[in-house]
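Note to self: the last two entries modelled the partners one at a time, which told us nothing about the interface. This time every component goes in together.
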Amino acid sequence: MICMDIDNGMLRAHLDGEMAASELEQMNQHLTSCADCRARFEKLSAETERTANLLTTLAPNGGDTTNPASAYAQFSSQFRNYDQPLARWFNRLFAPGWRPAWGVAATIVVIAIFSGINPMRTWAQRALAMLRVQKIAVVSIDPSTLMGSAEPGSRPYKLMNQFIADSVLVTMDPGKPDVVPTAAKASQLAGYPIRTIGSLGAPQSVEVSGETAFQMTINRDRIETLLEEVGRSDINIPESANGALIAVHIPKIVISMYGDCPVRHGDGISNTQSHAEALAERKMERMATMKSTNCTYFIQAPSPTVSVPPDLNMSEIAEAALELAGMSSAEARSFCQTVDWSSTLVVPIPHNTSAYEKVTVDAVEGTLITEALPQGNHYSLLWIKNGVIHSLAGHGNSSDALALAASLQ
Amino acid sequence: MTLRQISSEHWGEVDFRAVFLQHYARIVAILARLLGDRSHAEEVANDALWRLYRYPALQFDGNVGGWLYRTATNLGIDALRAAGRRRQHEATARWLAEKSAATGPLDDLLREERCRRVRAVLASIKPTQAQLLVLRTSGLSYKELADALDVKMSGVGTMLNRAEEEFRNRYLALYPNEEEL
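The predicted structure of the combined assembly is written out below.
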């Protein structure tokens, strides 16, 4: 062994007692005879010791109380109750403990999503702008940061609950969705033509959700207190937003289910103030519980309408919402600069598991989001045609999604 | 011959139980070092094991332990980063308050502050480097580290040196007055 053969990685392995037996003797011989390598080894050893001193402070000082058997008993009781694959990021995101947190974020995101300013169109005396979704943009977020904040019973949690109760007023309650046998019935009920996926035959069931409307007054002080409580006082809410009244109206939504889709369970809405959020949750839950077999969802919804005061800077609010959802402030800023908030539906996707691409579907531009999951790939295809947002979601690859969309009737 | 029903959605209970019992305590111990909070560590460990449960293909891959350590420490570092933003100012405020009250032994306070700093530095360096340092300090061998991080065993020494150098540099940058480095 000569000096050139010995890099610091090998010296390190020697120091850690991880050197192969065949090399160990040669290394020892060399270190005895070579002062340079010995000096390198000693320097490395001293540096490693200093770092180790710091890192070992993390060692627990109490006894190890972990009991794997009882931990397993607890763990398995959870997954036995869990007969559907719900291990998706949004499952946790929509877990009961997180609803209020998500409620705020969702409200802001929904507002950011559907709104913007169009000063040319004024409405009544309040000079509100009415906006409609015309295109879709995808934004990649880090879902873990949203999940990382409050726990039920904690002060931020209670503050958020209170905040939603005080600020959001539901003016139109969708109630339970109507289940109808055919697309024709759904068209009648929804008031706009409902399309079907020809190649999948008749839908297993069709649901029509009632109209939803809510309004919210932005109280900047309270939002800032809330952000401070969750440790995000770095997020800035524009001063111009204070006192702004934002009204959201979501028309009737039609969801057609094809194939072997899980049966809906009780609606489980516990908080009458958060129906919009509960709706989103139900939709997410349905998508999450989709069996890997052959369940496909086709959702049609006319653009929601959002009314905001004309002087409200939606781009700044959207920036704050995206930061809260896990984007860095630089990312959020540069993304917001590329979006026309007056007409764009922004879809947040988790950055670590999902990808998206622009595709042509139904003779318009659409967005295809694919998610690689342990149980197989999952897609969501989104597009807007004649003012109606279409969303096709199921298991499979991008080609499966496009083939289904090609058979639209 | 035994026929076992293989689900495409999750592990079989017998196999999963064995894996759980084999790795659980060690994973919780690693995460407790990283997060400094046992119940939080158990929560993150459950999350990692839950992901494993939903990933039945791994039963036939042979590197379950490596996957589990990698996933658990990834989740742990994510949690550390998220918690860092939230707790940093609280922890400092609490530490200052406790320090001025001088109710507890000074050593404990210093140790607590040192842990906080080490965690802040781990949260700020590259996740793979933080993973490597935490796993090695928790007693994983080079072979186990290579499996967990999906790298060659011969490269582990060099990676450890680099990770420690980065850790020291970042530590000094954040806490220049600390004498121990």
